[in-house]
UniProtKB/TrEMBL annotation, chain A:
Organism per entry: Sphingobium chlorophenolicum
The protein, known as: Uncharacterized protein
UniProtKB/TrEMBL annotation, chain B:
Domain of life: Bacteria
Organism per entry: Sphingobium chlorophenolicum
The name this protein goes by in its record: UGSC-like domain-containing protein
UGSC-like domain: residues covered: 4-171
Length: 325, 185
């Protein structure tokens, strides 16, 4: 803490010996450049990743996932420079697909968004320490986040329950089959509860209408585009897939219902929204521009009853990268 | 002996020089970078543009919109083309975290071309703007600071602020004109 390296929790000292052991287990050369990270525009090498990962309590087998995640976040489409500086409470959520979920014990069942004991906590914390120590994201200095979010301490790292999903895995649908990580700029997580619906349309209506709240960044009069993500529990997913076996139809349904009438907004909002060309002929404004911008995945416990929505910050576009050893 | 390794990264090479002064205005082409976030910056820059034109400058506005994906690549090309035909650049507005990040990034791009450049931010984001400029390798980047909060004020009040700041803005930009050299009221 005195060195300014910490997040407030105890850290494991990154001794030369521990870092060397981590690098050996991770199987990467220490001087390999993974990315240049803003705002410091600093070179993030494998060694810097290893040092921070040791401090966070990670094990070396997470190195391929860490490298792929950092690479995804540094993609210019992700706008890490803006994300790290914003007044918003955004944090990159990392969604893991492929067999690596089980090898690294990444949670995708009950409690996957937080609370279940898993190495994902240390992996997420390592990413956050890299943002702090290497990228230079510091509250009050280079980050203006008004509230921050608990996800900025140990990240949001979870997987998709592919085995219970009636649809292809998220990363595969985004062109990366097998082991993959998807970086998504999440404005935290929020719950959607429904104890009444018993049909695909019922569940999807509740999810879509819950996501369409006027303070979501996607509705900002300054937002040309945004994405949104929902995690559907396997019980609901099974019901939904009987009516909508194609994931594209699920996305289209959610996109259509995830909208607000323009007269719902106060008059001063209407011209800026209209100037962006976002008012449809039927007088509605959609949260995101296209059905493809609604990201859908299956995760969560078998208790059903709940879905999770993760709104996007806005300008950062989701990036999926393969995880390679 | 136990050796603890440093998890941090060092700052890039720094340029503390603010770059060339704006100098004379008459006959010069000035690019003003505005954005899609802050109506107050539209209002300030329209007052300043009117005054700059009155001193003989040719002013071109460029609005920064989406900066990621294909839209972002197109924006970068447009901005680069504008800078290539401009003699100086005024870049704003840093009035939130991400927009300050983009304002400084665009100001650094302009400064790197060698033309006189000034970024504009509101007082609450002055520290962030300076930090980002420093971390971007150009701590000397010129910065003009407007009052905060600005965007919640009515248009007439923002116009008054723009007029009141115009002279100090010219001085910060290194403009040589009779108005800039007058002492502040």
């Amino acid at each position: 803490m005195a060195q300014g390296w910490g997040d407030g929790l105890p850290l494991i000292p990154p001794t030369q010996e521990r870092v060397q052991d981590f690098l050996i287990a991770g199987g990467r050369f220490p001087d390999e450049l993974i990315a240049v990270l803003p705002p410091l525009r600093a070179e993030c090498t494998v060694e810097k990743i290893a040092i921070n990962a040791v401090m966070a309590g990670c094990t070396g087998d997470a190195m391929p996932l860490l490298c792929a995640a950092i690479g995804a976040m540094a993609d210019s489409k992700f706008d890490l420079a803006g994300l790290n500086a914003t007044t918003g409470s955004v944090v990159p959520a990392l969604i893991v697909n492929g067999p690596i979920r089980n090898r690294l014990d990444i949670p995708y069942q009950a409690g996957c968004l937080g609370g279940v004991a898993s190495p994902a906590v240390a992996i997420g914390r390592a990413i956050r320490l890299i943002m702090r120590n290497v990228a230079g994201q510091l509250i009050g200095s280079t980050s203006q986040s008004v509230y921050g979010t608990p996800g900025r301490v140990a990240g949001i790292v979870f997987g998709e329950w592919e085995e219970r999903s009636p649809w292809a895995p998220l990363a595969e649908r985004r062109g990366v089959p097998g082991d993959a990580v998807t970086a998504y700029g999440a404005m935290g997580t929020a719950n959607i509860c429904d104890v009444v619906a018993n049909s695909a349309d019922g569940f999807l209506d509740m999810i879509a209408k819950s996501m369409a709240y006027p303070g979501a960044n996607g509705f900002l009069p300054s937002s040309a585009f945004a994405e949104t993500l929902c995690a559907i529990n396997p019980i609901w997913a099974e019901v939904i897939a009987k009516t909508y076996p194609r994931i594209e139809d699920v996305q289209a349904y959610l996109w259509d219902k995830c909208a607000l009438p323009i007269d719902w907004f106060r008059p001063e909002y209407r011209d800026p929204i209209a100037n962006l060309g976002r008012i449809k002929p039927d007088g509605r404004v959609h949260l995101v521009p296209m059905p493809d911008d609604v990201l859908v995945m299956v995760a969560g416990g078998e208790g059903g009853l709940h879905a999770a929505m993760l709104h996007s910050w806005g300008t950062c576009l989701t990036v999926t990268r393969p995880v390679t050893v | 002996m136990t050796i603890i390794l440093d998890p941090g990264a060092s700052l890039a090479h720094d340029i503390a020089d603010p770059g060339p002064d704006a100098g004379e205005l008459a006959g010069r082409k000035i690019a003003i970078r505005i954005d899609m976030l802050w109506r107050s910056w539209d209002w300030v820059s329209e007052i300043w543009a009117e005054a700059l034109r009155a001193e003989g400058a040719e002013v071109t506005f460029w609005r920064s919109c989406g900066r990621t994906g294909e839209e972002g690549e197109q924006a970068d090309r447009e901005y680069g083309a504008l800078l290539a035909q401009s003699d100086m650049a005024i870049v704003g507005l840093g009035n939130c975290g991400s927009c300050t990040s983009w304002t400084i990034a665009d100001a650094l791009t302009a400064a790197a071309t060698g033309i006189p450049t000034i970024a504009v931010a509101t007082a609450h984001f002055e520290g962030l703007a300076n930090n980002l400029a420093k971390r971007g390798g150009r701590s000397g980047l010129r910065l003009h600071v407007l009052p905060y909060p600005l965007d919640i004020l009515p248009k007439e009040q923002v116009h008054d602020i723009a007029r009141n700041h115009y002279r100090s803005f010219l001085r910060n930009f290194g403009v040589r004109s009779g108005l800039a050299e007058q002492s502040a009221a």
